[in-house]
Amino acid sequence: MPPYLKPYAALVTDLTDKYRFNLFYKTATHVVALQVALALMSIIVVAWSIQYAQERTIETVGEGIVAGIFADSPASTQSLSEAVARVSDETYLYSSIIVLFLNILFGILIARYALWPTRNSLQFQKRFIGNIAHEIRTPLAIIKTNTEVALFDPKLPESVRETFDDTILELDRISETINNLLSFDTLTRPRRMQFEATDLGDIARTALVRHEALAKSREVHLIDEIAEDCFVCGNSVALEQVVTNLVKNAVNYTPKGKNGSVTVRVEKESAHKIILSVKDTGIGIDQKDLFHIFEPFYRGDTSRARGIGTGTSGLGLAIVNEIVRLHKGAINIRSTPGVGTEIRISLPSATDKNLEDPFGEDGKGTNEVSVDFS
Ligand SMILES: Nc1ncnc2c1ncn2[C@@H]1O[C@H](COP(=O)(O)OP(=O)(O)OP(=O)(O)O)[C@@H](O)[C@H]1O
Ligand SMILES: [Mg+2]
Hints:
The chain has helices at about 5-20, 25-70, 75-115, 115-150, 160-185, 200-210, 210-215, 235-250, 285-290, 300-305, 315-325, 350-355; strands at about 195-200, 220-225, 230-235, 260-270, 275-280, 330-335, 340-350, 370. The protein is an alpha/beta fold. Helix 1 packs across helix 2 (about 25-70). The structure holds adenosine-5'-triphosphate (ATP) and magnesium ion. Adenosine-5'-triphosphate binds near residues 245, 249 and 289.
């Protein structure tokens, strides 16, 4: 190869490697290639329409001249100019329809095929997270059991005992994160869930009892405003997780010893709607975080800065969001930094119709999250 071609050959090799191994580069190349193809086809359509308009205009004018020379009643200048205007309108209409059709077609191609590698990789990532979490769970349980067994030894020195106690606390924390990861993975395959008439009030009461110890340790009052017979069409295990994640956040993000409170309310809003509300008098959520807190692994700055969120995974609300979406519910948040947060979830009440087909026609559920900055 001549030496002056070597830099170009290196560039081509570099770009080919990037295309093969860099997913985003590959997607970007596909999108750009399709956009260039669209631009070329639009240029062809415009060139065709100009040529078509010219030919048709010449034909129309020619016909007018012939009629003027030979016909008994020659075409007037006005009718001739109207005929020419009609030709240009027709051409404009046809070419617009073709360009519109091309845009739609290329839009679909970009959405379905050009972005396919990225979509595929995100799905792979979720599955990968689920598999890894599953693999780690068993060895973790074994380590925890062994540590607990070791703690039974009465001759164990105090310092070692403390270390083992700390180890168990950390193992519990990792197990919780692993469980969250596994739930997140399961939620991406919704057909596994069984839906039935479930009393959301019962679930909320159980969650409150379970969080009494945590609330006591953080000196936060738990207030029960739960009505009777609030049946939703849902999966009880998943709904338990929703209430647990919300109550745990509310208690954890309420500063200790400031006479804080967490109110859990469940009520019928209408014949078709049940409301779950978890309201706290905690640190609140910054406006810039509010739009992101439902994203997996997102943790707000405020909680991190205050050290409250240490050891959390940022999956709690992402799981809540997935579960509410699968239940065709909606989430609404109101939060004021330094004053508190209220998260309201509305779920369809149990009716024969939604018990028959809980996933709806599309099987996807709705995804509604509204945020109130007041
Ligand atoms: N009640 C609340 N008050 C203040 N901030 C909150 C509240 N609930 C959630 N947040 C903020 O939203 C972020 C995301 O919450 P999420 O429950 O998803 O994750 P996490 O609590 O950090 O971790 P995990 O729940 O997975 O252990 C939190 O890091 C916190 O900043
Ligand atoms: Mg949380």
